[in-house]
């Protein structure tokens, strides 16, 4: 197996050497080299290439293969000369062998050109039709849009107002390309342009005009269309169709069973003529609409191309929408700055008020004016000003001595009842009797029980009244003692609070 492998390699190497030593007999060396490179990339037998060309097999053929074949194919004279070496086929180089095989195909180059046209026809139609429709639709949009016309009037009005008193005052119109120059006209502070001012006027006074970009949806597509190239492509398509019809008329009858060129290309020619006719009608309507639009805007179509015109409109449309967005962004920024400024002013105002209150409180304490001190302290306590920046106090050591509450110092009152009242009455009666006996001579008289009872009742009422007053006075005195003790305890806290306020 190893020996057989070596023999095959040697055979292939000798075969390559033989190929290299074969001399060209007809073809130019450069043409032969390019054709050899193409055939090496194609990797298909020459007879198979011939068959798919005769059958116009679109499944195996594509425009790239046909284009390379047309560009590398020798001239018809050289191909005809190679037909003489049909019997010396094996002694020829690969490019010349391919030429010998292709020499049997009649009208090879016209045939390849027709096949290439057929393969590229649908692509050409799909490229031309959208461009024609875009330009035609854009012309209709511009002519029907009332909003765009009102925007142009507004631009002219603002321009005349700005040019009042100059030689450009009361202008009747302006060139359409002037719309793109509005961004270069700036205010004194160099922050706002004519375009931003126009957008602001539309926002404030004429909000409906902000929708004019929606009326011009196809202007951007039309700005990318080159009318000259489109017309050139249509003419090229028409020329190829005429050439195809001419070739079909002069084509000889097929001599090979695989030759289906005339049959397939005749059907294609009929379809292509129909498609081209429709495109020509649409293109004619587009040109008419464009010339009418140029007349509407008083523009010379010979001086301004469709591409330039629609580019100016498209750029103005884009710049206007951008100016509207920038105006909205600036307003939002200003609103945020205004809110931030108000919040800052509010904070500073509250800070000044707090400082003013502290200063007034300190001034009152320094002057020794006690009037309103407690009110100021209460206000400071209620608002929380007295406790701002309050630091934690260290725990005080507990007192070893017991504190006596004011309530423990109150006198204990005896409960009042009827027996106590009788005892008091007896003591008062005995005192009165002693006083009467020592003051004057006793008079013997029968006791009057009614008078004694009356005087006894009167005295008991008086005693109860005096005792009530005594209890009331005692309670008041006790309450005063409690209040006094409370105030005495509150004094150190107030003094500490005043000291802290002075430190603030």
From TrEMBL:
GO terms for cellular component: actin filament. Residues 369-399 form the DAD domain. The keyword Transmembrane helix does not apply. GO terms for biological process: actin filament polymerization. Residues 384-414, 449-473 are annotated as: Disordered. Signal peptide: none annotated. SMART domains: FH2 (SM00498). Residues 333-367 form a coiled coil. Keywords: Coiled coil. Residues 1-346 form the FH2 domain. The keyword Transmembrane does not apply. It comes from the Eukaryota. PANTHER family: PROTEIN DIAPHANOUS, PROTEIN DIAPHANOUS HOMOLOG 3. This is FH2 domain-containing protein. It comes from Chiloscyllium punctatum (Brownbanded bambooshark).
